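Exercise 7. Given the encoded structure of a 729-residue chain, write a plausible sequence.
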């Protein structure tokens, strides 16, 4: 039975309860009585008496109005709740589906699933592997169980290939394989589309090199396990970026910032693997030939993409898959796009570049929205993924945009003096430059609603100020143009006493900003300038451009990307290039550009900085005070001046040319942006303090995932077979 304060209180005789109420009334102070009056007025003004706000108000009134006996029982009830929760968890810990993460290896021991490496804060779990162990053993030796094992052990989509089925060999007449031809049919478009991919069906000659070392593939004993590290993320009915209106058509891009980025297909991992994965079962970029052949399977409200014209979905019959790549003249200048819909009434779509074009023979569309999937490595920088755990709790006022206020600034102005939440409820463009002014002791959070990713288009600096102990938080926003400015003085001339600014799951887009909604295009610039004294800047799971901070502020960065664009550009410094910035504490991050700070505390971080030919900086990474702070398990550029480096890379100056991060892409907007390449040295990919990779994707624990899979493979491979693990993305 669950005992709360009210239930315990009701168990007392009525005489004691009446005396307790009388005593509680006599000890209420005048200030408490005024608070009770205000809370009661707020409760009377609530429209829905069963709403969360009404329940919170009633609870606050009850707490202030309690007698000493009821207050004592509330403390007892809290301890009973802790005990009940512990007892419930002890029961749940007996089952793999509900147990705590630390219990998983112990239950695994009971069924013989050994060699597990659980990690408390990892975004994956070994729970499924332990739960399916008995099922694995019943199907031991089959390719399907290897595929399910790979999915459960790593948390990634997987595909298994039996390479001996693709060997060009003389066939036994009693076991013919008509599809396994020893030559390639150049008219078989589907087979050629998947050539040299995990879904290749062409026959190959034997390769006797060992597959375990990733040198050979096609041999009799070889099994290939392909893993997709890139995940697909949804963008639902977001505005398409308008390129221009030409005389021939109306051109758009799927990416809201106007970048060419491939569309990804929607793919879900199977709970029970009964067949090997095909191209439609893994998160990979959509191909023109695949969409052209079977567009109906990928287009629609439950498919991988859909286009809306003035709020109405464009039918699949009016979609044409084309190559809309750049059209260039003889001098190499871009003059337009290829294959525009000039003599057709169909909408042209290029999934490889993320482009679309409406024909001019139809009326010009007023609003074009798109639903699609894009690729990225982790939940970082905002998106339609679960973020509620990062929301600020305890704020009473919630103003929704555009439901309660038309603009962000209107919502901010409507907040009471104690602050509150401004929540954006859609994925639209918000072309405005709001000003946030937090009163003394107030807390303001400007956030995107869960499952939303609005685009805030700044025409200039977004000024953030506050009184003593004021706090401001930004969460889930994609910001184009402008920069966040924390000035030293408020608009009225007083000192900006803002206590903290927190950025979580935000993107302050690095690089150039395109023209959007009347705001002109802007060159690459510093995205945060912090001048306010004694302000603490928290940045977590964000992607931002350069940052400048006065030396009397404090900056803490974790699990983020700071990208100045070039290694020789300034990623972090004081208000001027030649002055040191605020003390910097950074962990599990990737910083591209030069860094100059007063005090540096860094761990598991990649510093990709460099110097130009006549650069005035003596080093691309400098800390002014070398006797304070610590730098551990980081990659440091040659010539770095940092305090007490410990297990940093490269360990020797002679290894600087060999031990260096290699990225899949350095271009913001690409699916492999800041992802460590498969060609990156092991000193980087396994160089963190816990054996994970150094950099912004440290908490994905990719080496641990692969180690878990390798540990389990031998038990389920047939005798004589050898497996190779390949990262397909």
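Solution.
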């Amino acid at each position: 039975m669950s005992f709360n304060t009210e239930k315990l209180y009701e168990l007392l005789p009525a005489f004691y309860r009446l005396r307790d109420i009388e005593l509680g009334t006599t000890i209420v102070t005048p200030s408490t009585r005024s608070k009770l009056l205000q809370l009661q007025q707020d409760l009377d003004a609530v429209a829905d008496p069963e709403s969360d706000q009404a329940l919170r108000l009633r609870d606050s009134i009850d707490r202030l109005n309690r007698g000493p006996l009821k207050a004592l029982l509330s403390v007892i009830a809290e301890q009973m709740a802790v005990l009940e929760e512990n007892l419930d968890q002890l029961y749940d810990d007996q089952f793999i589906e509900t147990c705590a993460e630390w219990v998983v290896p112990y239950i695994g021991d009971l069924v013989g699933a050994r060699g597990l490496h659980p990690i408390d804060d990892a975004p994956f779990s070994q729970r499924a592997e332990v739960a399916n162990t008995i099922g694995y053993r019943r199907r031991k030796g089959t390719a399907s169980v290897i595929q399910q094992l790979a999915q459960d052990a790593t948390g990634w989509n997987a595909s298994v290939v039996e390479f001996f089925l693709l060997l060009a060999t003389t066939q036994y007449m009693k076991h013919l394989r008509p599809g396994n031809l020893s030559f390639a049919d150049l008219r078989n478009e589907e087979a050629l589309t998947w050539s040299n991919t995990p879904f290749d069906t062409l026959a190959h000659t034997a390769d006797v090199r060992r597959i375990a070392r990733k040198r050979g593939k096609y041999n009799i004993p070889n099994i290939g396990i392909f893993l997709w590290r890139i995940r697909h993320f949804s963008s639902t009915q977001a505005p398409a970026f308008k390129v221009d209106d030409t005389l021939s058509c109306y051109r758009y891009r799927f990416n809201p910032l106007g970048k060419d980025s491939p569309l990804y297909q929607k793919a879900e991992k199977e709970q029970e693997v009964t067949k090997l994965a095909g191209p439609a079962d893994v998160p990979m970029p959509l191909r023109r030939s695949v969409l052209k052949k079977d567009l109906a399977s990928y287009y629609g409200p439950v498919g991988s993409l859909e286009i809306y014209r003035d709020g109405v979905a464009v039918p699949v019959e009016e979609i044409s898959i084309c190559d809309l790549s750049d059209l260039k003249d003889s001098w190499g200048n871009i003059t337009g796009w290829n294959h525009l819909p000039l003599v057709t009434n169909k909408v042209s779509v290029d999934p490889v570049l993320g482009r679309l074009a409406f024909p001019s023979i139809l009326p010009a569309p007023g609003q074009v929205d798109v639903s699609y999937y894009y690729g990225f490595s982790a939940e970082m920088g905002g998106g339609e993924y679960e973020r509620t755990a990062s929301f600020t709790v305890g704020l009473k006022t919630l103003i929704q945009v555009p439901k309660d206020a038309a603009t962000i600034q209107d919502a901010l102005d409507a907040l009471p003096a104690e602050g509150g939440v401004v929540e954006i409820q859609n994925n639209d463009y918000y072309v405005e430059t709001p000003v946030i002014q937090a009163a003394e002791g107030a807390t303001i959070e400007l956030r995107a609603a869960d499952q939303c990713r609005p685009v805030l288009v700044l025409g200039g600096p977004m000024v953030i100020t506050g009184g003593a102990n004021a706090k401001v938080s930004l969460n889930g926003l994609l910001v184009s143009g402008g920069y966040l400015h924390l000035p030293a003085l408020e608009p009225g001339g007083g000192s900006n006493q803002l206590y903290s600014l927190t950025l979580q799951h935000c993107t302050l887009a690095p690089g150039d900003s395109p023209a959007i909604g009347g705001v002109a295009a802007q060159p690459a610039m510093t995205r945060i300038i912090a001048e306010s004294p004694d302000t603490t800047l928290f940045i977590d799971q964000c992607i931002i451009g350069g940052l400048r901070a006065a030396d009397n502020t404090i900056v803490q960065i974790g699990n983020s990307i700071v990208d100045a664009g070039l290694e020789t550009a300034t990623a972090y410094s004081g208000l001027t290039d030649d002055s040191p910035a605020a003390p910097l504490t950074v962990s599990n991050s990737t910083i591209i550009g030069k860094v100059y700070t007063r005090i540096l505390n860094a761990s598991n971080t990649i510093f990709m900085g460099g110097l130009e030919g006549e650069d005035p900086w003596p080093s691309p990474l400098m800390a002014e005070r070398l006797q304070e702070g610590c730098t551990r398990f980081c990659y440091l550029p040659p010539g770095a001046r940092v305090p007490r480096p410990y297990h940093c890379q490269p360990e020797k100056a002679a290894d600087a040319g060999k031990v260096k991060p290699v990225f899949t892409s350095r271009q913001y907007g690409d699916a492999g942006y800041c992802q460590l390449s498969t060609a990156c040295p092991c000193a980087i990919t396994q160089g963190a303090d816990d054996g994970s990779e150094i950099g912004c994707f440290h908490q994905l624990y990719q080496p641990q995932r692969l180690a878990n899979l390798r540990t389990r493979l031998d038990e389920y491979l047939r005798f004589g077979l050898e497996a190779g693990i390949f990262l397909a993305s």
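Remark. The chain has a mean pLDDT of 87. Students should compare their own answers with the one above.
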